[in-house]
Design a protein that fits this description.
The structure holds two protein chains of two kinds. By secondary structure, chain A is mainly alpha-helical. Chain A is 75% helix and 3% strand. In chain A, the strands form two sheets. Chain A has a two-stranded antiparallel ribbon with strand order 1-4. In chain A, strands 2-3 form a two-stranded antiparallel sheet. The relative contact order of chain A is 0.20. In chain B, 70% of the residues lie in helices and 4% in strands. Chain B has a single domain, classed as ABC transporter involved in vitamin B12 uptake, BtuC (Orthogonal Bundle). The termini of chain B are close together. Chain B is globular, with a radius of gyration of 20 Å. In chain B, the strands form three sheets. In chain B, strands 1-2 form a two-stranded antiparallel sheet. Chain B has a two-stranded antiparallel ribbon with strand order 3-6. Chain B is mainly alpha-helical. Classes of the chains: A mainly alpha, B mainly alpha. Chains A and B meet through helix 6, helix 12 and helix 14 of A and helix 5, helix 11 and helix 13 of B.
Chain lengths: 326, 330
């Protein structure tokens, strides 16, 4: 693909947007606002990393929002009602969510079903299960929670880099390394390019599918724990619609929804752009929250149209050179 | 035998009968009907009435899925049309209200169809845009409030009755007959199936696949808008946040239960509507049984998986048995 890579365009949009915001509201360009932006979007960033892997491999995972909801309820009940130590509860829920993802991946591969509909069933299942656990919001009062929410690194300018923002940044960097530098990452791209080709090249397609959905659900579990730190509560209706936000972040980050192309860094920029729109609307005060949805929709359209154009451009020269060779 | 039993749809009809039987066990008055003020009342009528929005959505969705597409935006379109209907209801007559809200649905469908047919986007992506932005647009129309109205015309649309049947049920029935007459009364249905079966081959064979795809999305938008108007008329108000929330998933589920493959091709309008009724019968049954409504989601998840596994190309066991039974019978 020639010309500007999509990630660069995302970066330019982010920088330009941020500059425009800063011109109108000079206070936006402070580490306080940036720190808050990272904290508010920590869970979205984590879940979007997993979604990036799934989408690059040519799939989609609609269950992540429900897994977050289930995790917050499970963790809250385990700590507050069942008397499980917080760390044990975290390990339990991460094992549970990884197993859930692995099961979805296995069903997708073994029965050759569209990921869209299998993860849709997973979404119903996880949300239904969290309703069964509790329909009320369960506050978490464990001392770990206040310690974690109080912890923050001071940034120059008075901003606070909170623990959950640090977790998110670590996962983004880890995800980027995993995707771009390991064999696992290369296989993810291969799967997205073409399943048949990947399998002929010796990629264990079944194992990869299971691992990719396992990773996505595991990260959704971590995002759920982070979300419970963020709200200090577990609620079965939390994170409704997060699957859409994370898909939007992935697409805005320049990942091809048909698979085979994309990057974790782009996704991170996509999350920041969504957070920036939200921040701008908060600063403006006269704009209502629904403009976030409309702006996200417009950006989605712009980026998908751009991808479509780039793909068309990329195909044309290939066809020409093939013609010239004969 | 084939004259008595439909070739397709046996499984769905059996499923509906089984669920109805379970409902009867759970609630002995389930089949009771009574006539009051010229309108039928009872659990069965309630199932039909509550199932109307999803049935209408599935009418449009089944055509979209038959072309190998999907429309995720129907819930958001419902919210938009409901918001328009509610805002106009008290200041304009019923024809204007209907024209405006159905027109909005048509424009939404045209937008989706344009993205898929002309720009060549994947349907799931193209309709995702409106799914995200649509609810924002609906909130823009209602200015974030829940708009209520008292216009008798629109209220009748949600709560009145025709020949003893609730108006929404009559409308859904009318739409089923209309869609069926247009699609199956002409070659249109065949052309839609051809487009879904193999778009390239159909294009080469002279089928206007672009026009086909565009028109199914437009129809899906109109059906969704109608469902939105009825949902708004039912509660005499428009809630942009919650109107039609998650109903796109129910509509897709109804189509899948109705035996239409997500990979396009053969479709059945009647079975899709039957699928919507199966979902609603389950919902009502769970409510009547006294279990918390939260069970709905779990039951739905299990049903989706069961239907998917039955349809899976790798697990043709059940279909094979059915086919053998059919062959043995005549």
């Amino acid at each position: 693909m020639r010309g500007l890579p999509p990630v660069l365009i995302t970066a330019i949009v982010l920088v330009l947007g941020f500059a425009l915001c800063a011109v109108q509201f000079p206070n936006i360009a402070s580490t306080r606002v940036v720190g808050n932006l990272l904290t508010d979007n920590a869970f979205l960033g984590i879940v979007a990393v997993g979604m990036t892997f799934v989408i690059i491999s040519g799939g989609i995972d609609l269950s992540v929002g429900s897994v977050i909801g289930f995790t917050t309820v499970f963790v809250a009940l385990a700590i507050e009602r069942w008397g499980v130590p917080p760390l044990v509860a975290f390990v339990l829920i991460l094992v549970l969510s990884a197993a859930f993802g692995a099961a979805m991946g296995a069903v997708i591969h073994v029965f050759d079903l569209p990921p869209f509909i299998v993860t849709l069933a997973g979404m119903f299942l996880a949300r239904g299960a969290s309703f069964l656990l509790s329909t009320e919001s369960v506050p978490i009062t464990a001392p770990v929670y206040s310690t974690v929410s109080d912890f923050a690194l001071r940034m120059p300018g008075g901003g606070r880099l909170t623990a959950i923002a640090i977790i998110m940044l670590v996962i983004v960097i880890g995800g980027a390394l995993l995707l771009h530098l390991t064999r696992f990452g290369a296989n993810v791209y291969a799967l997205g390019g073409s399943r048949t080709t990947a399998s002929l090249m010796g990629v264990a397609v079944g194992k990869m599918t299971v691992k990719i959905y396992m990773l996505s659900s595991l990260l959704a579990g971590i995002a759920g724990i982070v979300f419970s730190f963020y709200t200090s509560a577990g609620y079965s209706l939390s994170a409704v619609g997060v699957e859409l936000d994370s898909i939007a972040a992935v697409v805005i980050g320049g990942t091809l929804l048909t698979g085979g192309q994309g990057s974790v860094i782009g996704t991170f920029l996509g999350v920041l752009i969504q957070g920036m729109i939200q921040t701008y609307i908060n600063f403006d005060g006269t704009l209502s929250s629904w403009w976030t949805k409309i702006a996200t929709g417009v950006l989605l359209f712009a980026f998908i149209a751009l991808q479509q154009g780039l793909v068309a451009l990329a195909r044309r020269p290939v066809a020409k050179s093939a013609g010239a060779a004969t | 035998m084939t004259a008595l039993l439909p070739r397709r749809g046996l499984a769905q009809i059996l499923a509906l009968i089984v669920i109805l039987a379970v409902d009867r066990v759970v609630s002995p008055q389930f089949f009771d009907l009574r006539l009051q003020d010229g309108r039928l009342f009872g659990s069965l009528i309630d199932v039909l009435n509550r199932g109307t929005p999803v049935a209408l959505l599935s009418l449009g969705m089944v055509l979209v899925i038959a072309t190998r597409g999907i429309d995720l935006s129907v819930g958001a379109v419902m919210a938009i049309s409901g918001a328009i209907a509610a805002s106009l209801a008290d200041s304009h007559g019923l024809p204007v209200v209907l024209a405006a809200s159905l027109g909005a649905g048509l424009v939404c469908g045209l937008w989706n169809g344009f993205l898929v047919a002309v720009l060549g986007m994947q349907p799931i992506v193209a309709t995702l845009i409106l799914m995200v932005a649509g609810r924002g647009i609906a909130q823009l129309i209602t200015e974030g409030r829940i708009v209520t109205f008292a216009s008798p015309g629109l209220v009748w649309l949600g709560n009145g009755s025709i020949l003893g049947l609730p108006v929404p049920v009559a409308i859904a029935l009318g739409m089923l007959i209309l869609t069926g007459a247009v699609v199956r009364g002409s070659a249109l249905g065949l052309l839609i199936e051809a487009t879904g079966g193999n778009a390239r081959a159909s294009e080469l064979a002279g089928v206007g696949t672009r026009a086909m795809i565009l028109s199914v999305y437009v129809w899906c938008g109109v059906c969704a808008a109608l469902a939105g108007v009825i949902a708004a008329a039912d509660i005499m108000g428009a809630d942009a946040n919650n109107a039609g929330l998650w109903l796109e998933l129910d509509a897709i589920l109804a189509v899948v239960i109705g035996g239409t493959s997500l990979f396009g091709g053969r479709f059945s309008l009647v079975l899709a509507v039957l699928g919507a009724l199966i979902i609603q019968t389950m919902n009502t049954g769970i409510l009547l049984s006294g279990y918390p409504p939260e069970f709905n989601l779990l039951v739905k998840a299990v049903v989706v998986m069961a239907v998917l596994l039955l349809q899976s190309p790798k697990l043709s066991g059940f279909a094979g048995i059915m086919a053998r039974l059919r062959r043995a019978k005549p």
